[in-house]
Design goal:
Length: about 150
């Protein structure tokens, strides 16, 4: 009988030790949960602040778009109707309707222009289209280099 009592008491101690170990583990997990909740709150606050910043930036960009669209419309009203129709047709076809002509070539399709065509673009007296991509070409004269003074 004493052996049975000792065996049962041993089992009880083992079970109590297991309960204590689980309680310690539960306390550690609870501390981890609190720490992770704090981190989550920090991340949520940061995300909320970033969302507000992005929303503000989006509104600013929309306002800038409206302003630029109004400026574009005002400029488009001064362009002759034939030129505007050409611009819209090329834009619909190619996405970008104009391309810079520099160093004797179209800067978008990279095709070398005939010398006469490049000279006509440089004169800027009429609308010239690239023979390859059909974009309207423009020329930006380079500023002359200024020699440093003595």
């Amino acid at each position: 009988m004493l052996h049975e009592i000792e065996g049962v008491e041993r089992e009880i101690r083992e079970r109590e030790d297991q309960v204590l170990a689980e309680m310690e583990r539960a306390e550690a997990l609870a501390a981890d949960v609190k720490r992770e909740e704090g981190l989550l709150k920090g991340v949520e606050d940061k995300a909320r602040a970033e969302a507000q910043t992005l929303e503000l930036r989006g509104r600013e960009l929309q306002e800038e778009q409206k302003r630029l669209q109004a400026a574009r419309d005002a400029t488009a009203a001064t362009v002759p109707e034939e030129a505007m129709a050409l611009f819209q047709r090329v834009a619909r076809l190619r996405g970008m309707a104009v391309a810079e002509a520099r160093d004797g070539m179209c800067q978008l399709c990279h095709v070398k222009l005939r010398v006469q065509m490049y000279v006509e673009v440089k004169r800027n007296e009429e609308i010239v289209q690239c023979g390859h991509c059909s974009r309207i070409l423009y020329y930006v004269p380079t500023a002359p280099a200024v020699a440093p003074g003595p």
